[in-house]
Design a protein that fits this description.
about 110 residues; mainly beta; six-stranded antiparallel barrel; single chain
Amino acid sequence: MKLTHLSNQVIVISRLIPVSGSADKLALSTVTACLGHLQPVAREQTQLIGGVPGKMYRLFVDSDKDLKENDQLKDEEGNIYTVVKGGVTRWQHGAMDFKEAVIQRS
């Protein structure tokens, strides 16, 4: 079973990359779009990870997706999220291999 069977959002992943010809300028570049499952983090868990209540979410995507800290994500509704530092974890449960990312809505 693949994680895409449980997905509820199309997520666009963008990453800051250096602008050619300049060492001090960065720009957002779209890396990929993928299907993922987005769910809010409970208030108690939000306080444990030092987040803002109501703005913290978990995103589950297939393990082959390139997802890193500080990536910016955009969902179908136009909400923008940022992957928090240390928030990407790879999991394997039997035949299901996936990544979990803790993200914060801007």
